[in-house]
């Protein structure tokens, strides 16, 4: 454990601060989710202009670049927040959102789009800081509910982002007023501009209403290190934490879950946009945006209203396991959709995925925070390490999904376009089984 560990802040955040933190987290997820409905179509448009045929690989790369940047820089932001406080780090992330959302919308080559997504991820490695903020200002009994608030922000961002991305894509094709404008030549700029505006509003609110959660006497006393030294120290911390029985096991559970969940991010729209004659659904950008919006709405209900009472009754470990099972069922069922009653089928599938994810994510954060406190680890460093592990999973997931899809989509037999979704289910099973290595008493869980 670290020598300079300090007790958490005793600041009790007011409703205004929690609302701003909610918005910061929501904006982060808008930035991640806004590209999902149109990413495949954007890649196809840019690839056609550059005579590139491997669109599946580029979809995976663009999805992965954001997470790769978070993997590299989340520990940096987490460690920096332990030294200078949570508030300035969160605000830096919002500035980055504003700039790089717009840059992505203006991209006219695949390399420019890739750079924009990577830089957005660099400046958006602050979700770990938001979770540490909640840990700073929450009592044990408040923790699960307030982590659920962050989870609800994820859900709302995942609702707004894909919905905006789908409904506002190619506006010149829908509304004559945009014909011949920059929104005609850059058909995916409008949702990105709106996301930038939301980020600016959130930045102004944070400047005015978000107090610092970490008192000066509670901050780390480490001197500022170079990036390479910080990364080496972070790698050492991650390795050490992964070696612990409880925190390490929980990090591996989260890694497996996120790996499986993000395989879906790459292959879901590759499947739904397929022609029905080859087994797909023939969905448009707007159709896909509505599906992800439905996932987000169900996630809001789960994380905003259900996670607190369920945790108090059953404990975080049980809820985490239930979430992994439900998510696995939903993900495996995706490629078995049919055009007959397709939206009823989608409600069933997305219900499993959204409720499962809504149960898993806040439960994982709650357990990790409680274990870090119990075992006397520095919360910002622990959350930064956890976010790095999750980001690494989000790197592997889309790349794995895109590669498996590419080599199986045109095949028949056991390995075909269903295979990537089967992999999701297998990873969820592994996460479920590994969760039994985490030791946390029922009394500790239900007291959160």
How many domains, in number, for the residues? 1
Main structural class: mainly alpha
Q: Predict the CATH topology.
A: Growth Hormone, Chain: A
Radius of gyration: 21 Å
| Major sheet attributes | none
> β content, as a range?
under 5%
General form:
globular
Low-confidence runs of at least 5 consecutive residues: 1-10
Summary keywords:
Growth Hormone, Chain: A, mainly alpha, 17 helices
Structure description:
The chain is mainly alpha-helical and 448 residues long. It has one domain: Up-down Bundle (Growth Hormone, Chain: A). Helix content is 75%, strand content 0%. It contains 17 helices and no strands. Helix 6 packs antiparallel against helix 15.
Secondary-structure map with pairings?
Layout: H1 15-33, H2 36-50, H3 55-84, H4 86-105, H5 110-123, H6 127-137, H7 140-167, H8 182-185, H9 189-209, H10 227-242, H11 246-272, H12 285-314, H13 316-333, H14 342-374, H15 379-408, H16 419-434, H17 442-446
Helix pairs in contact: 1-4, 1-7, 1-9, 2-3, 2-12, 3-4, 3-5, 3-6, 3-10, 3-15, 4-5, 4-9, 6-7, 6-15, 7-9, 7-12, 7-14, 10-15, 11-13, 11-14, 11-15, 11-16, 12-13, 12-14, 13-14, 13-16
